[in-house]
## 1
Amino acid sequence: MSDIPRREFVRSALAGGAALMLPGTLYNAGLFGRRGFSAQTDSHIEVLLDEPIGTIAPEVYGHFTEHLGGVIYDGVWVGEDSKVPNIGGIRKALVDALKRIRPSVIRWPGGCFADSYDWRDGVGPRENRPTRTNFWIDDPGFKNVDGGPALYDPNEFGTSEFEHFCRLVGAQPYLAVNVRTLPAQAFREWLEYCNAPAGKTTWSDVRETAGDKDPYDVRFWGVGNESWGCGGNFTPEEYVEEFRRFTTWSMPHYGLDLSYIASGPSGADTEWSRRMFEALRERNAIDSVWGLSVHHYSSAPGVGNHAVDYDEIGWYDLLERANRMERVITSNWAAIGPIDRQHHVKLVVDEWGAWHDNAPLEDPSHLFESQQTIRDALVTSLTLDIFHRHADKVGMANVAQLINCIHSLFLSHDDKFTVTPPYHVFDMYAAHQGGQSVRTLVSAPEVSWTSRNGEARELWGLSGSASVKDRELTLTVTNSSLAEPRECEVAVRGGAIKSVRATTLISDDVHAVNDFDHPDRVTPKTVDIQTTGPSLVHDFPPASVTKLAITLG
Ligand code: AHR
């Protein structure tokens, strides 16, 4: 994937006089934007209330849970007889903390696992359910693990348990359908289990034995996962054949408007997206797609990818790779635009996060688990702000994965539990959900460094996004510099500031983590700021994430 051509982006925008017509936030590195500012600060932010981009779909604040390592077993599911406090087998501490950040949607059961999973193994009385070999069993990360639910899935956690988890936290379910190893008929029956009216079919009767007379009304269905890879090694054209088989004619809707999410590219592989959409157009099938799934993980090269003991280069390299999300979104959008001219299909970034190469923390079966630092919190804030700036394009996003895995908001083992720094960003940013994203111009000195492979690189000094809901303006800002604070004048165009509350996430040691003994090591602080009028001056500390909750007069 190539780098984002930031300087060119700014120059061409200015040259064309089209700066204010571009989607999202424009970063001009001091080239313009000082007009109308009163303070002599090194940075400026203009929030343009009269320039809406789109509503930030609450589904952008989605999560992802896969039967992988410690995500489900020891993470979400502890079992009804566990000494770990639980609600019907689901870890209570997780339910309580997750509810607070308003999770809009949760994706399950994978990931690569989904294309090996038979949902019928996970329904009916638990004591009758079969144990199956997990998709990930041959991963080298399991070399010190001998047995257990991460290798041999007991199917204690199935569709109804997942639905109960979603209900407990107030999220919509998003199910990933097995396209690689099951026929379309199995999908049809899964739909029936979830959505058929009570007492009408054998599968809805089985659902009732789980205590659920009423249908689950599952709306979001992913048709396969990474179908170019673990989901079947399909070509885009072959995948479209499968997609058609799985979604046309015979699928019962039970009065619901089903939203099918098609398996899309890895990152900015726009060739997959373009060919897939060409094939959909040939079959007159674009309208049957609700969302195009896109995955983007960020890893810093070399030693910089250690989750905790990274160096300065590792800090910047990772943030720069997280920022490539912008390119992933704009390039895929541009690739499908000439085919889906009305932009009927939205992008669904249903896997994203920083993927470090560390060993699990306490339990060796927690495959891909790593600690999270303030650096991962900044990956979170940069990414969510990108989604807001492209609110017109992104219909859903799911951070990967919820607990005990890649970019996790939670870590647990037995009865131990903590939230991580990225959790706090989700908490701070929850106010953006459902808000109207408005164009925001940022001007700040750039951050420069030499990357691990010796290239001169630059990052935007400050970045962020803004949204408005009921006269409440939420402005979120990341200062990516490890060393430089930014003094910034924030001007609200088209409105007046009545009151401001600032919440800042910062860490006195950028390598610090929240662990089971110190769960509050990295937590945000909130203060009220006394200011009124059209603008305010705020100091953004280095390596920080800030939310300014501004009540408009
Ligand atoms: O999240 C881990 C894996 O990464 C998922 O199973 C797969 O979809 C992706 O490659």
Note: Confidence is low (pLDDT under 50) at residues 1-33.
## 2
Amino acid sequence: MTHLEVNFDGLIGPTHNYAGLAIGNLASDRNKGEASNPRAAALQGLAKMRALMKLGLTQGFLPPQERPRLDILQALGFDGSDRAAIEQAAEAAPSLLANVYSASCMWTANAATVAPSLDAADGKVHFTSANLAANFHRSIEATETARALRHIFADEDKFVHHAALPGGAHFGDEGAANHGRLAPSHGEKGVHLFVYGEDGGRFPARQKRAASEAVARNHRLDPDHCVYLQQSKVALDAGAFHNDVVGVANGSVLFLHEQSFEDRDAAHAAIRAAAPFADIIEAPASQVNLADAVSSYLFNSQLVTLPDGAMALILPRETEENDATRTFVEDATSGNGPIRAAHYFDVRESMRNGGGPACLRLRVLLDGDERGATNQNFILDDAKIDVLEAWAAKHYRDRLFPDDLRDPAFMDEAYGALDALTQLLGMGAYYEFQR
Ligand code: SUG
């Protein structure tokens, strides 16, 4: 049956804030301590999902994770009642409190790496939750991500779930944000590009080569169809903390910046050898410099195949506002090439934490039976988006400072929003605090 890519976006949680927690992420650092607007963030994300559905794509979502994570505070010695744990942490370690409150699971491109059944030796869809070991606030996502994926893709005859890689930073794994798949079409066997880093002069690399190799083994991929490429240190030091900040693959197209890889020529040769059908569309540094690529998030676009077979770019407004990147997009979409359209979206709340359109989604390529076996609670239609919009409008604040996390009353508010979500979706006692 027809293979379709389903995007699972992170439904942005009520605690979205700017705490400046992320290493190597210039936007997160720049906006540290500023006021966020969680309600606008959630609505922006939902508007993007609705627009992709209008383009004829199937759209899913992953629910927000439980925040604050009281179990983590307790494990770190802040015990007593829930309120007491929050108050003690606020006093003794406010930045730790921000970590257990982070809404970072919204960036589901980092939730896991996924291999379609077409490519796995056992003919099943494989998921490896990312350990996100490079940042504490993200490392606590892995167990809940694994639980969410098992909840949504429960059929063991079709789906295989691998736990996050062991060993912390030794096998640092940031999920699909450093992985791309090329194939002549969605229904054909693909070639997997795994991009890893070596520490730069300014920032440490988050994705380790050994982690990518382990994921490829877990997913039972054909080694001849896997290519390992080192991200360039200049890109890392310019703020490309994940490779999806400088490139995106879809179908036969690889859309990327000239300075993505440490050894550009060798990388392109390796890609062409494994995927002779590949169409590499590259922005020369003379036309788009790395600073513009990173600040505009040109390459953190979603490159999607529409029902008529043409491809479209789903870009952040920031790319349109930058003359160099907008012009590059106009050139890339105006000819007879595979990419025919560009759609710009306001996802500024996420962008201010370094998360563009592509960060907000996990791609899962599924055939018809696999789609049928997917928990339909997490597949959207217009009516469900209406419900989620009304829910966010009712339960989310429109202004939140990192300091607001110190008030235990905000914990009750955040849990209240998640509790209401589980009721709306009939998810039962999904979260730990509900048990
Ligand atoms: O891991 N930002 C995230 C952004 C992730 C973007 N994802 C992809 N490129 N696929 C990160 O750096 C900021 C949180 C804060 O500072 O409060 C943060 O975690």
Note: The chain has one domain: 4-67+102-430.
